[in-house]
Write a structure and sequence with these properties.
Low-confidence stretches: none
CATH architecture of the largest domain: Alpha-Beta Complex
Shape: globular
Largest sheet: 8 strands, mixed
Strand content: 25-35%
Structural class: alpha/beta
Distance between the termini: 25 Å
CATH class of the largest domain: Alpha Beta
Radius of gyration: 22 Å
CATH topology of the largest domain: Polyamine Oxidase, Chain A, domain 2
């Protein structure tokens, strides 16, 4: 039997952030993680020299919690251009932010998507995202699609650019997500340019975990039980007694261990393809406005982060909604061939990641922040307690640490 001031269950971003903040506050902390590596949903697999993140993920340096809690410079972030490429019959149209991606200014102007009326209405709809956050949160909330309709946001800019882009970001294509939450995400996209660490998304949790003393891997927690004035946490090989427990596991496990209601989740599937020649030299996210197949977004990762592929080869990601049902590699490959206007028959499948619990559902009216203290020294952390994002995971971990520190003090 072992003991600590605090046991943190789960070594994802929320659990690691919580543990680091508690350790810095002088508490003896042990982190229990059932996997053999840290990171939770933020992981990178190294396959034959290719770096394949567990699902297409990006780190936005404009997230406030990233600025405060992460050494972004040390991650050597490789950023996408600020915009999107839209696949068409004769090639790609580009819609990009001229401030951050001036090299695409002329192509954006010629794209035909910057219709003044449509642009003005979309700008007016998005404007609250750039004001004070507390005012945004005070606004009445509604489903995204209804919010856009009421603001008169229609036409090709919405249909071909905004909705395909948000489908991948929100992991749903019906416009049911909270408009307030969507504006919060767009705020960060407008203020920062997302990218990936040069060595893969795993670099983020590895950095947070680097200063922690006790992180026990391969330790699946079977139970969390009240024991006198404290708690007992049991794994198949060891038990831990602590004054407080923070359950920062995935939402399903968190519900099982704490008795909280299960959090509805949305799934994504990401296919990783290796090819000798890049199908495009664009460093942009690629969308298919005509929706000719299951792929909601794709990108040549090695154009942005060369270290994602071995020398002389390229890595292409393609993401589909799990809600679309079973999708085969052949269907994805055929759709990619249409998008990039080339044959994908010679491409090799490096990995396929089915992420059933990619993002918590964020319905209209749901509080952006939900309680992390459950009472009597039991706490919970994760993006299901905050916003469904890396920002939400980091913030919830810090909130839980502060709540634990206050209760123990």
């Amino acid at each position: 039997m072992d003991s600590a001031d605090v046991v943190v269950v789960g070594a994802g971003l929320a659990g690691l952030t919580c543990a680091r903040e508690l350790a810095r506050g002088g508490h003896d902390v042990v982190v229990l993680e059932r996997s053999e590596v840290v990171g939770g949903r933020v992981r990178t697999d190294l396959v034959d020299g290719f770096r394949c993140d567990r699902g297409f993920q990006l780190l936005n340096p404009a997230y406030p919690a990233v600025k405060q809690l992460v050494d972004v410079d040390a991650l050597d972030l490789r950023q996408f251009a600020a915009g999107a490429a839209l696949a068409g019959e004769s090639g790609f149209s580009v819609v990009a932010d001229p401030r951050r991606s001036p090299k695409y200014l002329l192509r954006s102007a010629r794209s035909g998507y910057l219709h003044p009326t449509e642009l003005a209405r979309l700008t007016a709809w998005a404007a609250p995202a750039l004001g004070p956050v507390h005012r945004l949160l005070e606004r009445p909330d509604e489903p995204l699609a209804a919010s856009l309709d009421e603001s008169g946001v229609q036409g090709r800019l919405r249909r071909d650019v905004l909705e395909p882009f948000l489908t991948g970001v929100l992991a749903e294509d019906r416009g049911e997500t909270s408009a307030t939450f969507t504006r919060l995400l767009l705020r960060s996209f407008l203020l920062g340019t997302p990218g990936v660490p040069a060595t893969g998304m795993s670099a983020l949790p590895e950095q947070i975990a680097s200063g922690l003393g006790r992180v026990v891997l391969g330790a699946e927690v079977r139970s969390v039980e009240r024991l006198g004035a404290g708690w007992r946490v049991a794994t198949p090989v060891e038990t831990y007694d602590a004054g407080a427990v923070v359950v920062a596991a995935d939402p399903r496990t968190a519900a099982e261990l704490t008795g909280l209601p299960a959090t509805p989740m949305k799934g994504l599937v990401t296919f990783w393809f290796a090819t000798d020649e890049a199908p495009t030299d664009l460093d942009l996210l690629v969308l298919d406005p005509r929706r000719r197949g299951p792929v909601v977004n794709t990108a040549v990762m090695s154009n942005v982060a060369p270290g994602y592929a071995p020398p002389g080869r390229h890595l292409v990601q393609a993401t589909v909604l799990m809600a679309a049902g079973a999708v085969t590699e052949r269907e994805v490959g055929e759709h990619l061939g249409q998008i990039y206007r080339t044959s994908s028959q010679g491409w090799d499948v490096v990995a396929v990641h089915e992420i059933h619990d990619a993002l918590p559902v964020q319905p209209p009216g749901q509080p952006v922040r939900r309680p992390v203290a459950l009472g009597d020294g039991l706490f919970v952390a994760g993006d299901h307690r905050d916003t469904a994002s890396i920002q939400g995971a980091l913030v919830s971990g810090r909130r839980a640490a502060r709540a634990v520190h206050t209760s123990m003090r």
